[in-house]
Amino acid sequence: MSGLIETSNPFPGLRPFGPDEEHLFFGREELVDKLLMRLRETRFLGVIGTSGCGKSSLVRAGLIPSLHGGYMVEAGSGWRVAVIRPGTDPLGNLAEVLSQPKTLGRHAGPEETAQVLTEVTLRRGDMGLVDCVRLARLPPEDNLLIVVDQFEELFRFKRSRGSDNARDEAVAFVKKLLSAARQTELPIYIVITMRSDFIGECNEYPGLPEAINDGLFLVPRMSRDQLRSAISGPILVAGGQIAPRLLVRLLNDVGDNPDRLPILQHALMRTWNYWQQSRVGDEPIDIRDYEAIGTIDHALSSHADEAYEDLESDRDRDIAATIFKALTDTISDSRGIRRP
Question: Do residues 116 and 183 make contact, with C-beta atoms less than 8 angstroms apart?
Fold first, then answer.
């Protein structure tokens, strides 16, 4: 590989892998097969795990592409996929995604009108989601998968509003998902991803604990061999090479801490960028590149410091500091949760 060739960075950083990055998603092949098996058995699947264990990537870059590839043979390869986060408006966010042409999109005219009509149907009752799908008149070979990523945001939504209306809306949102998964007339499948430390919150929603018990998939930590594949696989796909000693160093730095996967991805993204800019000839990514970005321990804080120092005025830096501190909500929940 010539030193003049620039190839795109194969690591997503802190965000999860997307469905179009299946070719870069390594180390979880066996888990994807098990997810498919569980989804065959139940139409409500709870993908549960610790923070940073890769739940979102497993569903987005593992399960979804496998469904499109027809690996769940009984259901075929016709899948319409809606991925949402509860955020500050769970039902509104669901209606927005359902009204898009690639999901249900049954209404002609402006997208805003389609969303309003979809939300009206969705809110009619516990079967509102089923009614939306029925009215869309999808081809008989099409299935609908609804992924509610970071499901724990729903618990924050209910508490942050501090009103009975917010609680009722959160309960209604869950009821619509459960009702859609229980019925057998239409091929609707529900997958949620949720942090395991929020599992107790599910008791506040009738039927949710039972559904999760029936469709539980607890994401295990990655083995050393799986981590090795997750590190070296994307590099090879992108046309690079990694020095064996750096690979060993990275594996040792991650250790047995499953929470470090996003930090590892971020450090690898930064290491790749540094290597692209400083390498000579065909030399592989090595320890000097990794240490130059601060290693796993300091790569993220160094990156934040760079972004902060690049700002031109004191006012900009004050705004940035406020934003950084607001990213995680530790007031309404001491465990810390991303603020939508």
Answer: no
pLDDT value, residue 1? 38
8 A C-beta contact, residue 208 and residue 202:
yes
Closest C-alpha among 57, 67, 71, 44 to residue 11: 57
User: How far is 26 from 209, CA to CA, in rounded Å?
Assistant: 31
Backbone angles phi, psi at 44, to 5 degrees: -125, 115
Sequence length of the chain is 340
CA angle 174, 175, 177 (to 5 degrees): 65
Q: Which helix (H) or strand (E) holds 32?
A: helix 29-41
Helix segments in the chain, DSSP class H: 29-41, 55-57, 64-68, 90-98, 111-122, 128-136, 153-161, 164-182, 208-214, 224-237, 244-254, 261-278, 287-292, 295-309, 314-326
**Each residue of 224-259: pLDDT tens digit?**
999 999 999 999 999 999 999 999 999 999 987 767
